[in-house]
Amino acid sequence: KRRMSYYDYQPFYDLMFKRVPKPISLRCRKDGKFFLAVGACKGDMVSLNAIAGEICMYCDGKRNVGEICEIMQKKYSDVEKYKLLSDICTCIMDLDNCGLIMIQDVN
Q1: pTM tops 0.90
Q2: In whole angstroms, what separates CA 44 from the centre of its chain?
Q3: How many CB atoms lie within 10 A of CB 101?
Q4: For the packed helices 81-97 and 10-17, what is the interaxial angle rounded to 10 degrees?
């Protein structure tokens, strides 16, 4: 079985990287090793692990997904690039599904 590589998912990343995750009346604070976040849409409190909380903090409506990935790659250089990119994109989509952020397409 052939192992999937970064290039197999390149069209997906090309679509995601230019998009800008914007908070939706997001309140997020660090609580020990975790982050607590509340979005205006659903009003549910969500507990995020340290890395998801860090990604959430970078979703400020100014940085696009590609820029967030670059920041995280510098910080976590020991993690395989494809694995990190995949995890970041998955996390951002999960934050969107929770109603904490909205992923905007920027043309």
Answers
A1: no
A2: 19
A3: 25
A4: 50
Element housing 35 (H / E): strand 34-38
> Per residue in 62-94, pLDDT tens?
999 889 999 999 999 998 887 888 899 899 989
CA distance 94 to 57: 14
Task: Kindly state the tokens that stand for 10.
Answer: 């390149």
Q: What are phi and psi of 19, to 5 degrees?
A: -80, 150
DSSP 47-105: EE-HHHHHHHHH-SSSS-HHHHHHHHHHHTTTS-HHHHHHHHHHHHHHHHHTTSEEEE-
Residue with tokens 């997906």, as numbered in its chain: 12
